[in-house]
Specification:
- The chain has 968 residues and is α/β, with parallel strands linked by helices.
- It is built from 46 helices and 27 strands.
- Strands 5-6-11-8-9-10 form a 6-stranded antiparallel sheet. A 6-stranded antiparallel sheet has the order 16-13-15-14-18-19.
- It starts with a helix and ends with a helix.
């Protein structure tokens, strides 16, 4: 065993070799699972040098990793995974005049472009993972994405690469003249030996001819087959016409097998035109859509992307992407996204779009071609980017498999290639999935396979082998942008010929004589059907849960929906909420992906009777705040909030429920007692010793009980309602435990507002929502509450008489957890359809014309909305926006504010206080501080309002309370 403890002590960064972190880094977004020896998070180049020398001395390999979104298995390995995503995130230098920028490998592509945008520049390659993928990974894979038909691939942008070689020496690979290259061959350093080896190998005329003969057609711009020795042949040093040569371009696409990149200098481009039109043409077959590409590409497109009906069907049930399919007409078998643009005017862009549509119609392609503009174009792009994640949402063990998903052929060959491919798939009984970069001659093709079965794994190899032969027939590239890695590496001898493959092996040996760098990828590759994430032929564990996970065929398959695409690693600048804990810590452990993968690992491999009973699971779930953002923002709809609740319940059954958890879970019951003498209770709970005993952070103030409960106020005041005619009908108001004991004034505002607007507000005796029980894993109690509340409301609530809730986290349990918990599932599902947040109800009534602007004053006021996480995930903030825009002179804006960080009791817990405040600082607090003191802050969540006050000293109000002040 290598001396890992000694290594850890020598690093400024972190070395992690506990079971949890080895599990986290055993997978990426590919089909593979290899348990590493450790994972390192180096802080600087000195740390990487130490890691390289340690690996050399101990005969182990290092695997470089950034976001871990690789699809071919490039970022898994049995040695040390070196994760540079946390600390290597600096923009080193920027030369605006020469349009170059130098960055560390952990800089996120979209973050780089945010930096460049004020200067009128951007980095062109645009992958579907652009909001979390990092430059190091893009260089490793030679990424390209949707913009390659205009702006090229990553290799085109390489100016210089600073790297650490396999002996720990530091080098810079940049552009050299032939004379400078030859000068580099002289000497005894590893760098000299590398240049000498390349010169000797590529100067051979027979070798040059073999490369030209066997490598993919040079017309295929997206070619990522093996090492890019064909690119080096462009130099006049090796028979080409270019006066310079750059070995950095060889490193691009080498997947970290030749050197460890620490800085990259890139060429950047002028920003694309802002006058854009996207034509989304609908087709009755995939083949028709591909034949249309040849016509469309004559129109100087900026985007030419394809999506098939399998992915479009997945968008129907995805909470986030269902909003982005607004343009779909009928049931197309495929759509093409054709984007035209103009630097001069919108009129010019319109003329281009009309000419394109006319050309398609004259050639009888497509049955509909709607034109989209502005923000709608971005929505369609987001739908396209979600493709891979959406495929993970397919229920069951048959999943879209990554093995043939990256083939590229010359554009003119694409229709015939796909026709041959489709015929081959038919022979295999497969309805394959087609999407992505049609305009570049590359489609992401995926068979649907069950890799848990021997037959599925056999097909995995068999289909990949046949596709390799088909791609070779067209002299295409087996990898266009995702890399060879494990999944395609062993096909390289066939794809480029044995002589060229032996050449690549010699080049690898020249760079890495001691086998230190990312072994088993590209050359001497591991077998593509071994080391898979799932054990072939295993007996699926039967795991009993208190929640109903039948919608995913059980809790294990609910976790397995995560395919590792890493959407949960996006930062606040990317928008949305997922994942607050990762945004605060930047640790892989705190991602949605980590939680799903760790749960899958232990549910699959644990030998305990209670497979949830592992401290590693407790550690990985600890900072999950059950915000539910993953349930909507994760394209695969991995609901980690539900998984955490189940875990806590099962884990605490074995290990006991702590006193603090019992206090927080039973909050409503304790408040019922405390409300007998509220002043005394309020005094007691905020005493330092009491807070210390409850484990509450000293800087927090425990919320104060109201002098009188909301229910008591209703009893005393309902008869005093002055409205004589309830012209707008009836509704039931859910008296949640937060409004009842703490936010009574909000409840009064809601009651008065609804009554005065002509609604009869009805109340019945009912249970609390159970939210606190759910969040703390007391699921037996939550189940009893859910069952009772469903039984109470199922016969009296309807579309005409809905159930309305003030506190989002309470009313939305009816739509979410109750469906998994209640005994009467059918009634719970029916009831859920008629349970609305009060904002949703107002939007519905405003749309129906029952609530009008004339009923409110014309006071001028600015309002900023912060949405509760559960609203964002399970409801909509747009409803609040509509509601607060009813008064004519309100200027209303929705904050893109992520999570506030309080998350119920989480932010009160002493060990979570700092991270809770960090979550608020990520986005929300700075935005509130930047608003004028007269601006009203609307926040529906009670915990959000407390967190806003603690973090900014500003008092936020419930939207109902704000609207009530405007009522005439």
């Amino acid at each position: 065993m290598p001396p890992l403890k000694e290594l850890a002590g020598s690093l400024e960064g972190t070395l992690l070799y506990d079971d949890l972190h080895k599990t986290l880094y055993a997978t990426d977004a590919s089909a593979y699972r290899i348990m590493p020896l450790a994972a390192a998070l180096p802080k600087n180049e000195a740390d990487i040098i130490k890691l390289v020398r340690f690996a050399k001395e101990n005969k182990i390999a290092l695997t470089p990793r950034t976001a871990g979104t690789s699809l071919a298995g490039q970022t898994v390995g049995s040695g040390i995974i070196v994760d540079v995503s946390k600390y290597f995130t600096k923009i080193v230098s920027f030369d605006k005049e020469n349009k170059t920028i130098t960055v560390q490998p952990g800089v996120i592509r979209d973050e780089l472009n945010l930096y460049l945008k004020p200067h009128g520049l951007f980095f062109g390659p645009n992958t579907s993972t652009s909001n979390r993928c990092m430059i190091g990974g893009m260089v490793g894979n030679n990424s390209s994405g949707t913009t390659s038909i205009r702006y090229g691939v990553t290799r085109d942008k390489i100016v210089e690469i600073k790297a650490i070689l396999s002996d720990g020496s530091q080098v810079i690979f940049g552009e050299l003249t032939s004379a400078e290259f030859i000068e580099k061959t002289k000497g005894d350093s590893l760098e000299n030996k590398i240049y000498r080896s390349l010169y000797e190998e590529l100067s051979n005329e027979a070798t040059q001819k073999e490369i030209v003969k066997e490598f993919p057609k040079p017309e295929i711009h997206r070619r990522n087959t093996g090492y890019a020795v064909d690119i080096l042949l462009y130099s006049d040093l090796f028979g080409g016409s270019q006066p310079t040569i750059n070995v950095g371009k060889l490193l691009c696409g080498s997947e970290g097998t030749l050197a460890f990149t620490t800085e990259v200098t890139l060429k950047v481009d002028d920003l694309p035109p802002t006058n854009n039109v996207m034509v989304v043409t609908h087709f009755t077959s995939v083949q028709e859509s591909l034949e249309a590409v040849m016509i469309a590409m004559k129109h100087h497109l900026y985007t030419c992307e394809m999506i098939d009906d399998t992915i479009l069907d997945c968008t129907k049930t995805n909470k986030e992407q269902s909003k982005n399919r607004f343009f779909i007409q009928g049931e197309p078998k495929a759509i093409m996204m054709f984007e035209v643009a103009s630097h001069t005017s919108m009129e010019d862009a319109e003329m281009q779009a009309d000419a394109l549509i006319k050309d398609l119609e004259e050639n009888h392609f497509g049955y509909a071609s709607p034109k989209l503009y502005g923000a709608d174009i971005e929505k369609v792009n987001e739908l396209r980017k979600a493709g891979l994640g959406l495929l993970g949402s397919i229920v069951g063990d048959e999943k879209a498999a990554d093995s043939i998903e990256d083939t590229a052929v010359e554009l003119s060959d694409l229709p015939n290639y796909i026709a041959d491919f489709s015929a081959m798939m038919k022979r295999h009984g497969q309805d394959a999935i087609y999407y992505a970069h049609a305009g570049a001659g590359e489609l992401h093709l995926r068979p649907v396979l069950n890799l848990k079965t021997k037959d599925g794994v056999y097909q995995f190899r068999n289909i990949a082998t046949e596709v390799a032969h088909l791609v070779k027939k067209y002299r295409g590239s087996l990898s266009g942008e995702h890399g060879d890695g494990i999944v395609r590496g062993e096909f390289l001898p066939f794809m480029i010929g044995e002589k060229n493959y032996e050449l690549l092996k010699r080049i690898k040996l020249a760079f890495d004589p001691n086998s230190v760098l990312n072994m088993g990828k590209i050359v001497n590759a591991l077998k593509m059907d071994e080391n898979l994430r799932f054990e072939t032929g295993r007996e699926e564990p039967n795991i009993k849960t208190i929640q109903d996970f039948s919608d995913s065929m059980g809790v294990l398959r609910a976790a397995e929906k995560c395919n590792g695409s890493g959407d949960c690693r996006k930062l606040p600048s990317a928008g949305g909420t997922m994942c607050p804990s990762y945004r605060a810590t930047r640790n892989e452990k705190d991602t949605t992906r980590a939680r799903a993968n760790t749960l899958r690992e232990y549910l699959t491999h644990s030998e305990k009777d209670n497979k949830f009973n592992h401290k590693e699971l407790y550690e990985v779930f600890e900072l999950c705040i059950s915000c539910k953002a993953c349930a909507s923002e994760c394209p695969s709809n991995v609901d980690v909030g539900a998984l955490k609740a189940e875990f806590l319940y099962q884990y605490q059954k074995e290990n006991g429920f702590s006193l603090r958890n019992k206090i927080f879970a039973n909050n409503a019951k304790l408040n019922k007692l405390g409300s007998i003498f509220p002043a005394l209770t309020n005094f007691m709970v905020n005493q330092p010793l009491i807070k210390k005993g409850m484990g509450v952070a000293p800087k927090r103030e425990v919320p104060l009980l109201a002098p009188k409960t909301f229910r008591k106020w209703i009893e005393n005041n309902k008869s005093k309602t002055t409205t004589t005619s309830f012209v707008n009908g009836k509704l039931y108001l859910f008296c949640d435990e937060f409004t009842n004991y703490y936010d009574v004034t909000v409840g009064i505002d809601a009651y008065e507002l609804l009554s005065k607007l002509g609604y009869e507000v009805l109340f019945v005796d009912h249970e609390e929502s159970g939210r606190a029980y759910i969040s703390k894993g007391f699921l037996e109690e939550a189940k009893a509450i859910a069952t009772k509340n469903v039984n109470t409301f199922k016969a009296i609530v309807s579309a005409e008489i809905p159930l309305i809730g003030i506190e989002p986290s309470a009313i939305l349990t009816f739509r979410d957890e109750y469906v998994r918990l209640a005994d009467d599932k059918a009634s719970a599902e029916t009831l859920a359809k008629n349970c609305l947040t009060i904002e949703e109800f107002f939007k519905r009534e405003i749309t129906a014309g029952k609530i009008r602007s004339e009923q409110f004053s014309e006071e001028v006021r600015e309002i900023k909305i912060h949405g509760h996480c559960h609203q964002k995930s399970l409801s909509s903030i747009e409803a609040t926006f509509t509601m607060l825009n009813v008064p004519k002179n309100c200027t209303v804006t929705i904050f893109n504010s992520g999570c506030c960080g309080m998350a119920g009791s989480f932010g009160y817990e002493k060990e979570h206080y700092e991270i809770s405040m960090q979550m608020g600082e990520d986005t929300l607090f700075p935005k509130i501080r930047s608003t004028a003191p007269t601006t009203a802050i609307a926040a529906a969540g009670t915990s959000c309002r407390h967190q806003i006050f603690d973090g900014t000293n500003r008092k936020a109000q419930h939207p109902v309370s704000i609207l009530n002040t405007f009522l005439k």
